[in-house]
Amino acid sequence: MPAVNTDFNRTCARLDLDPERSGVFTPGVARVSFTDASLRRFNECAARVAPGTPPLDARQIAAATRRLSRAIGTGRESRFIQARMRRAGEIRVLLDDGGWTVEDKLCERMLQLVDYIDNEGGLIPDDVPVIGGLDDALLVDLAMEGLRGELDEYADFCRYRMGEAARLGATPAAVTMDRACWSEQRAEELRLERVLRRARGTAYAGDVGAARFQVG
Question: What's the angle, vertex CA 180, arms to CA 179 and CA 185, rounded to 5?
Answer without folding.
Answer: 100
